[in-house]
Amino acid sequence: MLCLSSLSVALAALALVPSISDALKDGECEVCVSFLGRFYQSLQDNDVKFTSADIEKALVKTCKDTKGKENRFCYYIGGTNDAATKILNEISKPLSYHTPVDKICEKLKKKDSQICELKYDKQVDLSTVDLKKLKVKDLKKILEEWGESCKGCAEKSDFIRKINELMPKYAPNEAKARREL
């Protein structure tokens, strides 16, 4: 009888210990970890009070300026106006206690697995890439990242010309490296 009760106590103790499978793997939740890491650093740099309410206000303000995958992340956590759910408190409260961002992302993953499925698009090295070998979709994505569009572009060569025209403005180092090649 004593053996059974000690076994049940041991099993109960194991249930309380977080399993290794709950921990984030390398590259998992990359948008969450990266975004929240930069956000946490900006809070420290701007001397924001680490209260839940102040963190939430700063998070919503930060989310207004996001694009791409980070905007999608903000949508999932409720940081955008069009978000259906709000789980901002799942971020603001732990951040107010200075909880590491990877632990926050682990908890968010349990709430909504889509958050950890977000991955950044592969960045194109404009200094070395042959633009002629890229797909039109990728050329459009470069322009979109710069906040530009190519009205009247019908051919691939039109997009390439527009990118080469705007590169000194948006990617001056890459433009300089291309000229040196």
Automatic annotation (TrEMBL):
It holds the Pfam family ARMET_N. SUPFAM superfamilies: SAP domain. Residues 1-23 form the signal peptide. Gene3D superfamilies: SAP domain, Saposin-like. GO terms for cellular component: endoplasmic reticulum; extracellular space. One of its GO terms (biological process) is neuron projection development. Residues 28-124 form the ARMET N-terminal domain. It comes from the Eukaryota. It is found in: Secreted. InterPro entries: ARMET-like, ARMET_C, ARMET_N, SAP_dom_sf. Its main location: secreted. Residues 128-170 form the ARMET C-terminal domain. Keywords: Disulfide bond, Secreted, Signal. The keyword Transmembrane does not apply. Belongs to the ARMET family. This is Mesencephalic astrocyte-derived neurotrophic factor.
